[in-house]
Design goal:
There is one protein chain. The protein is of the alpha+beta class. It has one domain: FAD/NAD(P)-binding domain. 21% of the residues lie in helices and 29% in strands. It is built from 8 helices and 19 strands. The strands form 3 sheets. Strands 1, 2, 8, 9, 10, 11, 16, 18 and 19 form a 9-stranded mixed sheet that branches. It has an 8-stranded mixed sheet with strand order 5-6-4-13-14-15-12-17, covered by helices on one side. The longest helix has 17 residues. The structure holds flavin-adenine dinucleotide.
Length: 399
């Protein structure tokens, strides 16, 4: 039977990994909720650092159906809020992690172009495009690209080979702050639903823009859907005319935002646009109650073939076709969307869960909210989360 098309479309890579089928356990030392780059990196490192402790990754959909499989795959330095106290060198750490876990990531770090319509352009800017003004290169910053499908599959493989259990289609519906913590899980095995309670000593919530009731981030963060498209392979002459022969990815530093990168096939990905539209970042950090139920999946109401989401993709496509004559008649091979979580001051959320009755509890940790800047950072902080869960490294204070 043909697979039903995903309402958010499909990116140009696949996640070549299928977890080994195993029954859900009753109790684990560490439960990780969310099988994206953050959760899988943490799982792999927990087992590497503490091989005797049990680790379970619960993913409500398939691996990669969140931001991690739908990302642009630009590996960037620092965070969306810039460098932060104690952060360290994200790109160097990322490279080291990929090497240690033997992941064939296709990482290249030739630098990233920053483009602007108004800033002082480089004297001989290879890029000269038309997009609400003349877009030219203003700066080169550290960074590059990976193949996100390979990184996700590589992390999942590393986690499973190290002894972590990964379960897809297992949604955590509620979390009770008892001792041990109790997770109520709803599993969907080929259409057959069953529910299970799992007890765990500690939890990492790596659920990003989803399950905001569960992570307690409903009032503190804004989930959005963002968009990308990929072109058919371009010729060397077309890439030269576009100023992309160096294969460096790029993003604009002014608005309207546009980012992009080359694929190994010589197709180009361009990305921009948000639904619902951006209206600033949230600024409230409330305390939470003791038993949290997961209620909504707001972004899942969007379909890239219809309504607002389709309109944003048409807007992006029209911009791409008007950037340069070499793109006017280019064939678009993929169109897709994926979630982003915006936070106060663009700061990543990396802290213990604070509840009214357990303000100092170190049972539930949250790692989320990279503001569209999480390809390298999620993997880097995933390792840090594992160290913090094992009490080998303190969490940063980025609030
Ligand atoms: C189109 C797009 C382009 C991007 N481009 C770039 C880029 O070029 N460079 C860059 O640095 N960043 C980029 N980003 C951001 C980057 O992809 C993300 O920051 C990163 O992938 C986040 O990883 P994550 O593991 O935290 O979240 P996710 O990958 O979203 O993983 C969260 C997972 O949790 C699961 N989940 C949620 N709730 C539950 C539950 N209750 N129970 C079980 N599982 C649950 C979800 O199904 C999901 O798989 C982009 C994002 C998008 C959408």
């Amino acid at each position: 039977m043909p697979r039903k098309a995903h309402p958010w479309g499909a990116p140009p890579w696949t996640v070549d990994f299928c977890p080994a089928p195993r029954a859900l356990p009753d109790h684990v030392d560490f439960a990780i909720v969310g099988g994206g780059l953050s959760g899988l990196s943490a799982a792999a490192w927990l087992r590497r650092l503490a091989p005797g402790r049990s680790v379970l990754v619960l993913e409500s959909a398939s691996l990669g159906e969140g931001a991690s499989g739908r990302t642009g795959g630009m590996a960037l330095a620092e965070t969306a809020a810039g460098n932060l106290p104690g952060l360290g060198d994200v790109l160097a750490g990322y490279k080291k992690i990929l090497r240690a876990l033997r992941i064939d990531s296709r990482l290249t770090l030739p630098g990233v172009w920053e483009l602007s319509r108004s800033g002082p352009a480089k004297k001989h800017s290879p890029i000269c495009w038309s997009d609400s003004g003349d877009l030219k290169i203003v700066r080169r910053v550290p960074g590059g690209t990976v193949n996100p499908g390979k990184v996700l599959a590589g992390l999942a493989r590393a986690a499973e080979n190290a002894g972590a259990q990964i379960v897809e289609h297992a949604e955590v519906r509620a979390l009770d702050f008892s001792n041990p913590v109790r997770l109520r899980v709803r599993c969907n095995r080929r259409g057959r639903i069953h529910r299970k309670e799992i007890r765990t000593e500690q939890v990492l919530l790596a659920t990003n823009a989803f399950s905001l009731e569960l992570s307690g981030l409903r009032a503190a963060a804004e989930p959005k859907l963002t968009f990308a498209l990929a072109t058919a392979p371009l010729s060397a002459a077309q890439l030269k005319a576009l100023g992309l022969s160096s294969r460096r990815p790029f993003y604009t530093v002014d608005l309207p935002y546009l980012w992009g990168r080359l694929l190994e096939s010589n197709g180009v990905i361009f990305g921009a646009g948000l639904v619902p539209p951006y209206v600033g970042t949230p600024s409230r950090f409330p305390f939470h109650s003791n038993s949290i139920k997961n209620r909504t999946h707001d972004l899942r109401r969007y379909d890239v073939r219809k309504g607002e989401a389709a309109a944003r993709l048409r807007w992006l496509e029209s911009r791409v076709r008007h950037l340069h004559p070499a793109l006017e008649n280019v064939r678009i091979t993929q169109r897709w969307g994926g979630p982003i979580l915006f936070t106060e001051k663009m700061l990543p959320i990396f802290r213990w869960f604070i509840s009214k009755d357990h303000p100092r509890s170190k049972r539930v940790m949250i790692l989320a909210g990279y503001n569209g800047h999480g390809v390298a950072l999620s993997v880097y902080l995933g390792k840090w989360a594992a160290q913090a869960l094992l009490a080998r490294r303190p969490l940063p204070h980025w609030r």
